[in-house]
């Protein structure tokens, strides 16, 4: 650990007690904090003690239920605004930049990125921007290390099987516009989105998606803290990943 990380961890222990970061410390040990599920092996960090469950009930956590209900209630307006933006403000979308790849047939309109709301997105997507701000950003549910965006897969697009970097955040999808022939596979189990409803899954497990339909498929994705993480752990993880990114020259 760098002196900066050690100082940040010491301050957190001072606020919350000497044992508050034991799981984070175990994660950083050789071997990554213990055994992991075979379909999580490609993830870089696994915080021990979190449920090794690929699919989660979107209403299974009281912390997240208000956001889920607000997004689903707002779906008609969100879809109408998204449709208008796709037709008339295509410049607001760009090829999605995943840490493993960039895909031009995977388009994104970012609402939250690099630890802050993307104010420009309030124009083309005012309802989604408002709900995200009120129920995820202002409440601290969003993981500031990651993002929220409209994810649009063009017809024929395939996202190859992969695992994301860690398990301490979790991915919420609001199904905005879903043609027939679209699917999401997580840890070998394939589901389809139900328009207007949310899905919640742990993307440290291997997952893949495809649009075999005849028009674009769009979901609103929100990267949230895993509800089983604690406040001191979240603080420590932000300090840790921010410092690692700085050392790697990645902001």
UniProtKB/TrEMBL annotation:
Domain Aspartyl/asparaginy/proline hydroxylase: 73-227
GO CC term, one of those recorded: membrane
GO terms, molecular function: dioxygenase activity
Alphabetized UniProt keyword annotations: Dioxygenase, Oxidoreductase
Coiled coil regions, renumbered to chain: none
Secretion signal span: none
InterPro entries: Asp/Arg/Pro-Hydrxlase, Asp/Asn_beta-hydroxylase, IPNS-like_sf
Family: Belongs to the aspartyl/asparaginyl beta-hydroxylase family.
Protein name per UniProt: Aspartyl/asparaginyl beta-hydroxylase domain-containing protein
Species: Streptomyces sp. R39
């Amino acid at each position: 650990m760098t002196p900066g990380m050690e100082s940040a961890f010491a301050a957190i222990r001072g606020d919350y007690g000497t044992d508050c970061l034991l799981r984070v410390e175990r994660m950083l040990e050789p071997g990554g904090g213990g055994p992991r599920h075979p379909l999580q092996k490609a993830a870089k960090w696994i915080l021990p003690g979190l449920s090794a469950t690929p699919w989660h009930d979107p209403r299974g956590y009281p912390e997240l239920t208000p956001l889920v209900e607000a997004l689903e209630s707002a779906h008609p307006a969100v879809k109408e605004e998204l449709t208008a933006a796709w037709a008339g403000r295509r410049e607001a979308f760009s090829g999605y930049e995943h840490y493993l790849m960039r895909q031009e047939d995977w388009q994104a309109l970012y609402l939250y990125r690099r630890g802050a709301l993307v104010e420009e997105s309030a124009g083309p997507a005012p309802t989604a921007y408002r709900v995200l701000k009120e129920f995820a950003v202002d409440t601290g549910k969003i993981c500031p290390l990651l993002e929220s965006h409209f994810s649009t897969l063009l017809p024929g697009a395939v996202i190859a099987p992969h695992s994301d970097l860690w398990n301490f955040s979790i991915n919420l999808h609001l199904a905005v516009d879903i043609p027939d022939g679209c699917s999401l596979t997580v840890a070998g189990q394939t589901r389809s989105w139900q328009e207007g409803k949310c899905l919640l899954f742990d993307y440290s497990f291997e997952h893949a998606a495809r649009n075999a339909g005849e028009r674009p498929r769009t979901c609103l994705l929100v990267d949230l803290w895993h509800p089983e993480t604690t406040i001191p752990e979240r603080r420590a993880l932000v300090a840790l990943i921010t410092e690692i990114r700085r050392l790697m020259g990645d902001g």
